[in-house]
C-alpha cells in the first residue's frame, strides 16, 4: 500500500487541529481541581491533589442544579420540536407540489443570511406583546423551525424514492402515516445531525436568554455561569476555580450527545447534500 505525501500532511494538520482544540478543554478540567492561588501561580501545571472543593462550592453557593435542569428542559424540548417540524416542512417541500413552493423555499434559505442580532429587538417586542417574556416558552418558540433544519431535511428527503411512497399509497396508507411509517425511519442520520446541531446551539445559547430572562430561578447554564462573573464585578471575589468547575460540568451533555450520535451525524451531513432536485 502506497502512502501519499498529501495524506501524511493532511493527517498532520488534522492532529494539530485536534490538539489545539483539546488543550483549552484539558486546561479547564485541570484548573477546576486547583485552588485560586494555584491557578495564578502555575496555570499550566497539574494539580497537587484532586481537590473537589470548587465543585462543592459550586453546588453549595449557587443553584447549579436548577440551572442544569432549566438548560436540559429547554434544550431537549427545543430539539424534539425542531426535528419534528423541520422534518414535516422538509417533507412538504420535497414531495409535494404547491403554488409558490420555490419562492417560499428561497425565502426560508435567505433567512440563513440574516444575523440574529439584527432581529433581536423586534423579536423581543413580539415576545413581550404575546406575554411570554421571562418564560421558557420564549426561549423555545423562535427557534423551532430554523432554515438550516428545513434545508437539511428537504435535501435528505429528496433522496427517498417517490416509488416507495406511491407503494404506501397503493396499500391504503394515508399521507401522515406515510410520513410516520416510511419517511421518519429513513431519516435517522438526518435526525441525528439536526438533533446534535440544535441541542448544542440551545445548550450554549447565551444572548437570547440574557435578553428574555430576568428571573434568576429560570436561568439556563450559560446565564448561571455568567452570574458567577457578574457577582465578582459587583465587588465580590472572582472564583475562577468554581467557574472552571461549572464550565467542565456544563460541557458534559453536548460531548456525550456527540459521542453517542457521531456516526449518524456525519452520515446525515454527507447524505443530505448528495442530491438536489
Automatic annotation (TrEMBL):
| Transmembrane residue ranges | 12-30, 72-91, 103-124, 136-157, 178-203, 238-261
Look up keyword Cell membrane and say if it applies.
Answer: yes
Gene3D superfamilies hit by this protein: MetI-like
Membrane topology field: Multi-pass membrane protein
Enumerate the InterPro entries for this protein. MetI-like, MetI-like_sf
> What keyword terms does UniProt attach to this protein?
Cell membrane, Membrane, Transmembrane, Transmembrane helix, Transport
Q: Where's it found, cell-wise?
A: Cell membrane
Q: Which lineage ranks, top first, belong to the organism behind this chain?
A: Bacteria, Bacillati, Bacillota, Bacilli, Bacillales
Q: Which protein are we looking at?
A: Carbohydrate ABC transporter permease
Protein family? Belongs to the binding-protein-dependent transport system permease family.
Q: Which residues form the ABC transmembrane type-1 domain?
A: 68-261
Amino acid at each position: 500500500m502506497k502512502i501519499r505525501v498529501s495524506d501524511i500532511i493532511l493527517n498532520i494538520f488534522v492532529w494539530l487541529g485536534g490538539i489545539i482544540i483539546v488543550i483549552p478543554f484539558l486546561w479547564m478540567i485541570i484548573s477546576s481541581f486547583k485552588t485560586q492561588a494555584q491557578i495564578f501561580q502555575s496555570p499550566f501545571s497539574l494539580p497537587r491533589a484532586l481537590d473537589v472543593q470548587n465543585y462543592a462550592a459550586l453546588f453549595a453557593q449557587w443553584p447549579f442544579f436548577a440551572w442544569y435542569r432549566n438548560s436540559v428542559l429547554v434544550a431537549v424540548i427545543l430539539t424534539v420540536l425542531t426535528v419534528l417540524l423541520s422534518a414535516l416542512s422538509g417533507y412538504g417541500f420535497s414531495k409535494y407540489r404547491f403554488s409558490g413552493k420555490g419562492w417560499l423555499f428561497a425565502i426560508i434559505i435567505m433567512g440563513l443570511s440574516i444575523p440574529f442580532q439584527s432581529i433581536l429587538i423586534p423579536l423581543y417586542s413580539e415576545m413581550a406583546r404575546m406575554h411570554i417574556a421571562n418564560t421558557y416558552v420564549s426561549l423555545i418558540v423562535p427557534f423551532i423551525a430554523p432554515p438550516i433544519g428545513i434545508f437539511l431535511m428537504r435535501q435528505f428527503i429528496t433522496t427517498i424514492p417517490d416509488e416507495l411512497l406511491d407503494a404506501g399509497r397503493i396499500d391504503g396508507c394515508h399521507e401522515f402515516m406515510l410520513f410516520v411509517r416510511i419517511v421518519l425511519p429513513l431519516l435517522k442520520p438526518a435526525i441525528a445531525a439536526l438533533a446534535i446541531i440544535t441541542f448544542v446551539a440551545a445548550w450554549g445559547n447565551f444572548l437570547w436568554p440574557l435578553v428574555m430572562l430576568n428571573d434568576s430561578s429560570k436561568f439556563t447554564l450559560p446565564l448561571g455561569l455568567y452570574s458567577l462573573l457578574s457577582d465578582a464585578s459587583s465587588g465580590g471575589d472572582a472564583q475562577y476555580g468554581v467557574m472552571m468547575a461549572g464550565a467542565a460540568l456544563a460541557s458534559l451533555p453536548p460531548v456525550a450527545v456527540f459521542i453517542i450520535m457521531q456516526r449518524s451525524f456525519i452520515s446525515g451531513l454527507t447524505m443530505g447534500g448528495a442530491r438536489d432536485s
